[in-house]
Amino acid sequence: MTRRAVATDTPAGRAPIAPFVGLSTLWVQITGTWCNLECRHCINASGPKSPWLKPLDAATIARAIRDAEAAGVKEIYFTGGEPFLHGEILPLLELALGAAPTTVLTNGTLIGPEVADALAALAARVPYSLELRVSLDDTDEEKNDRIRGAGAWAKAVEAVRLLRERGLLPIVTATEITRDEHPPGSGMYERFRDFLHAQGVARPRVKIMPVFGLGRQPAGAAEPLTEKDLEGFDRSVLQCADARVVAAGGVYACPILAGLEGARLSTGSLAESFRPAPLYHPACVTCRQTGMTCRNS
Amino acid sequence: MSPDRDDVSEQLGEYRRIAVFGGVYNNALALEALLADARTRDVEAVFCLGDMGGFGPHPDRVFPLLREHGVLAIQGNYDESLASGRSDCGCGYTDPRDNHYAAISYRYTFEHTSTENKTWLGALPRHRRLKLGPHRVLMCHGSPRVVNEFLWESATPNGLLRHLMRRAEADVMLCTHTGMKWHRALPDARHAVNVGVIGRPENDGRTGVWYTVVTAAPDLQVEFVPLAYDHETLAREMDREGLPPEFAETIRTGWWTTCLENLPARERARGKY
Q1: Would you call A203 and B156 a contact, using CB atoms and an 8 Å cutoff?
Q2: CA separation (Å) from A277 to A13, A261, B122?
Q3: In the CATH scheme, what architecture does the domain B15-270 have?
Q4: Strand partners, B226
């Protein structure tokens, strides 16, 4: 299914702000919005054709990692698009893992035996944990592939198997997009956990994310946050208070809004983005309400 | 972090050799064993980095031991929650299964901790600073910046440690909270030490627990001390108190059964579940 890639944005000028308390998490939108899948709910409308946000070159990524390390970053995430489409993913991942624990958010479809071998070898020789987050939106193949495209389920499940066999413990990451298709009261977390156990995964790891109304997912009726919505709320717990995203065009406030003009905090260095971020987008409402984080935990 | 309102305001203590532990988790039997063991090791003082409650049975048995033996403690997230009457432990878990077990544990501990002991917990400082020989030591629970920040060995980069310790004006940082010990000497001669916990084993299939002896010789020496205690009696008490069988299983086997989701891949891979 092809849907129009839309980068909706609204003015950020009068929005409430989140403080910047220090860089804890660096996100690298390594492939921009270039992806081999075209999921119906993709937050940044990634896809195979003409990505609206271009991939990053290796020099930009290396500079961001170096600057983040100097700023005391705690963890690094590679996302996109599909990170394994980037021709230099493995050396860049090694560079990142020399600086901090690093996670790759992947759809798993490009992780065959050779890539899995390379990842296992990498994980064994770097000082910090390599984490792999494999996206799967439903344990049921038909429900999953309706969202993520034909064949996506089988390839992701195979990636989990290949990684498990090599001692890597991927985190299966699901959005709540098909939650209403299951009987009320059936726990989504338990369903994924049971599924992974049945796949032979002795140490199942599951992360569940809310659905955001942006990218290819229709925006809800949510209005942007106001100062009144934030009364008595500790804004320093929002991820834009301690995360930054390096993507084409500059440095942005959070991974959900990477590439959007209103969320851009620097067109140059990482350090220039170390300032308060405007909570201007309706997606900020979801973070405020759910307390969600894009981090692993 | 410069010294702030969260720091203990006592005069900076000066020591040569100290014992440090974290995470009692209601395990008075392990605490008794530790206090006996530490007496044989020529330490000048014993420090606890917080989280007296949670997980185990009979919370109030821990406090007389801490007080009678002059243990110098700081406040962990559990202690802060109990003292302020919060509805959850503030452990920092993010997935529903971990939060389910954390809620059982917290409710039990809250209901079985006396008002007097909650008040005592509320009076503990958040950090302690001392001199160990020439070394400026900062003690914290999770990290110098956040009480419930997890500093796992495989997920705590040197750049972060340098950043935290520079801000804290410390040469040595001692923390706990994760339940797994580690020590890293940084290239600039600073040291970061997670002293481990005595409340439950560290997911290694062994029933013993660990505490830490730190010595200024004058170079810093860090020794992790294994500690055996009557774990079967503890497990039986947990069963009698109606605590989840998964908790007692951890005490009997040394494998974590809950609160696993935020372990990094490397630490998780070492465990059974």
Answers
A1: no
A2: 11, 12, 35
A3: 4-Layer Sandwich (3.60)
A4: B210
Q: Is the pLDDT of residue A9 over 70?
A: no
- Please list every residue in chain A whose beta carbon sits closer than 8 Å to the beta carbon of residue B267: 129
Residues of chain B contacting residue A237, judged by C-beta atoms under 8 Å apart: none
- In chain A, residues with a C-beta closer than 8 Å to the C-beta of B152 are 129
CATH 3.20.20.70 for domain A17-290, yes or no, is: yes
**Cβ density class A25-63: b for 16+ within 10 Å, e for less:** bbbbbbbbbbbbbbbebbbbbbbeeebbbbbbeeeebee
Give per-residue pLDDT as tens, A162-174. Answer: 999 999 999 999 9
Nearest to B264 by CA among A120, A135, A132, A119: A132
CB contact under 8 A, A189 and B97: yes
Q: What was the pLDDT predicted at B98? A: 87
Give the Cα separation of A221 and A227 in Å (integer). 19
Rg over alpha carbons for chain B, rounded to the nearest Å, is 17
Which pTM value belongs to this model? Answer: 0.94
Domain positions in chain B are 15-270
Tell me the two tokens of residue A91: 């050396």
What ipTM was predicted for this assembly? 0.93
Q: Is A194 on the interface with B (CB under 8 A)?
A: no
Distance, in Å, from the CA atom of A269 to the CA atom of A286, rounded to the nearest integer, reads: 28
Positive or negative: CA dihedral B200, B203, B206, B212: negative
